[in-house]
Amino acid sequence: MIATTLQNFDQFKENELSNRFFKHVDVTRLLAQLPKQFELKQIGLSVKGRSVTQVTWGHGPIKVMLWSQMHGDEATGTMALFDLFNFLQSDDPLVKLLAENCQLDIIPMVNPDGAEAFTRRNAQQIDINRDFLKEATAEAKILKACRAAIQPHFGFNLHDQLTLWSVSGSLKPATLSFLAPAFDQELNIDETRKNAMLVIAEMYRHLDQIVPKHIGLFDDEFEPRAFGDNFQKLGTSTILIEAGGYKDDFEKQEIRKFYFGAILAGLVAIARGDYQQQELDNYFAIPKNNKQIFHILIHGLLLDGIEVSIGINYDESPTHNGHATVKTYSIQDIGDLSYCDAFTVYNQANLQLQGDVRLYENASFQLFENSTLILAFTDGEMCQA
């Protein structure tokens, strides 16, 4: 049923959010357009005075809290939530199921100041997701107080991860990663965490059919300062979703569809109770995340008299206005990279490289196929080939 719903995704995709760089003003405008079945409540202000809004929908007994963009440059979950808002206004039979069984409490943008600058941290340069214990930031206090007021049974913690995470055994990008965060150093499993694991197993069952070999299980090392770990400890079955990479999808417009599908699959599993039929073994069978991919991989080059492959990655930094990023490419590995893959692979015969290749330095070279220029960098900047 989730796959069928995604076939009609364009009907409820929020088209006003077409890249990752939307701002608080865009979110506020869209929230104001929601019909009356969505209850809006301002639950606080960011450091710079931007509103943080809670949206409540549904009248069921199971309380589910969803929050996104704790990190201002992690916007995929927010896009998926606005797609969800549109879906919840449709006549799909799943909408009635969710409304009767769940109360959804949603915070679409926890860190509006970070979103404004398109940076991970808030205006005080603090990582909100490492501020559960100290509560130094206004945003951490807001999120913590919201959970305390709602006392949700389930929580969806929505993030983006680096695009360089891959899925063990597939050499594919980890387009989505799931995790039921640990609540202690020993990684124990109580009923709360078990329920999160079972919901994830059900989510994976659906999504692996839609985007096979692109879903990984994130590392479950305990982080005592993080919200997911602590919400789990407090009795909210917490489900982490991370959006990674997908080929030729820099603005994550295809990934948001899969992300929405994951959220919907989880909510339906909760509303129906399907997760209770799942097995813990199915959670632990989800392939682990690893790092066996590059952004660019070039095979079959002669360098210093030997044949090697070169792995190249980019780092992103926001422009001054937070409406775009600058990509800086650097050489990250040289040698036998036959066990790796990349978003873009050059493996043609007759490749020639002109320029200097230095490990961990910015890429500055030209790549030719026969006499045709196919790739070029100047001090880390990709040039038009």
Total count of strands: 19
Strand numbers in spatial order across the main sheet? 1-2-4-3-5-10-8-9
CATH homologous superfamily grouping of the largest domain: Zn peptidases
How big is the Rg? 22 Å
CATH topology of the largest domain: Aminopeptidase
Name of the CATH architecture of the largest domain: 3-Layer(aba) Sandwich
| Number of discrete helical segments | 10
End-to-end span in angstroms?
44 Å
Q: How much of the polypeptide forms β-strand, as a percent range? A: 25-35%
For the biggest sheet, the summary is:
8 strands, mixed
Low-confidence stretches: none
The helix content is 25-40%
Average pLDDT level: 97
Mind telling me the CATH class of the largest domain?
Alpha Beta
Question: What does this 3D model show about the protein?
Answer:
The chain has 385 residues and is an alpha/beta fold. The chain has two domains: 2-290, Aminopeptidase (3-Layer(aba) Sandwich), CATH 3.40.630.10; 293-382, Urease, subunit C, domain 1. It is 27% helix and 30% strand. The protein contains ten helices and 19 strands. The strands form four sheets. The chain has an eight-stranded mixed sheet, sandwiched between helices. Strands 14-13-12-15 form a four-stranded mixed sheet, with no helix packed on it. A hairpin with a 5-residue loop joins β1 and β2. α3 (76-87) packs across α9 (255-272), α4 (93-101) packs across α9 and α7 (191-210) crosses α9 (255-272). 44% of the residues are buried. The model has no long low-confidence stretch (mean pLDDT 97). It holds the Pfam family Peptidase_M14. GO terms for molecular function: carboxypeptidase activity. Residues 13-385 form the Peptidase M14 domain.
